[in-house]
Amino acid sequence: MQFGIFDWVEASDALSPQEVYEHKLQLAAAADKAGLHGMFLAEHQGTPLSIDASPALLLAAMFQRTQRLRAGALTFCLPWYDPYRFYNEVCMLDQMSGGRLELGVGRGVSPIESQIFNLKSVEESRERYRETLDIFFAACNSPLLNFQGKHYEYRDVELFNRPLQRPYPPLWFPSSNRDSIEFTARHGYHTALIAKTGESKALFNQYREVWEKHKGDLGRHNGHVAAPFLAKTQHIVIAETYVEAERIGLQAYERWKGHMHHLTRRYDRPEVLKLEPFGEDSVQRLIVGPPNTVVDKLQEAIAATGMNYMLCIFSFGNLPPQAALRSLEMFAGEVMPKLRPPAG
User: Fold this and answer.
1) Do the domain assignments include residue 9?
2) Which of 21, 126, 314, 329 is the one with CA 20 to 30 A from 249?
3) Residue 135, domain member (yes or no)
4) Dist CA 202 CA 272 (whole Å)
5) CA distances from residue 45 to 221, 234, 260 in whole angstroms, order as listed
6) What is the DSSP letter of 79?
7) Cα 273 to Cα 311: distance, rounded to the nearest angstrom
8) Tens digits of per-residue pLDDT, 218-242?
9) Residue-number span of the structural domain to which 155 is assigned
């Protein structure tokens, strides 16, 4: 069982962008000190859900503030990138971090955000995603980049940088349905879900079945990774009392929920995610309380979902930065040790 942090890097009414970024850097430093495995950032555009328009910039700063913590984006939205520059930025991050980069790749979940980059359809977005990923793989395997595709073309482009991790950093691909799980498991990607508890269990079981069948196949994208992480995101607020944790947690959850639905409400689109803090059908539930209560609830969540990696969401909505840091401190000291089996 591993533990990490996921963060949308939301806009704030109370904090300036500079203060938001500084808080995330402090959170990364605290996670590093606490011995968490990694910290992952979302990438969104044109929404208060995220002011992390360039994850590479914030990741570079995080690597300067930490020593052991791995970090990455979940995900870099590949259709929004020039493939050549994307390859070089990944190389720089991996080299500058000493090989601590985790590489999440995806298409981008929001067609509204993709329109900012003049992507006219979901199909065009898929095509650019696939070509960008193919170009990345080609660049990692040759000193010269040659590629001929529908959207991109490179001829004998010399490459003078390489990822420190070979052939490239571990790959992550978020999944939400049976079709994407099939692809993800076949190639051995680490994956992360925002899904109902029961759905998560079924998807993770499907992943494990497919992975077992194909873990020895040649040509898998994540073949250099011995065993995949199956991650689930989890909002957590820990305080000295249940009343205090619930009070600040519910307030922050409602603000985060508004950010999640901002674009669909602005453009009068249907809300595709059911978000309720304590609802059985919610794809993202909230766990609050003092440490002992949180231990019990997280043990239930681990058993019910089948996750082997918990992506903790400590900072969200309008939660005060000190409350988020305090949750992380108590999680590391009083909760995490009880969720890991003893050595041996």
Assistant:
1) no
2) 21
3) yes
4) 20
5) 28, 23, 12
6) G
7) 19
8) 999 999 999 999 999 999 999 999 9
9) 69-170
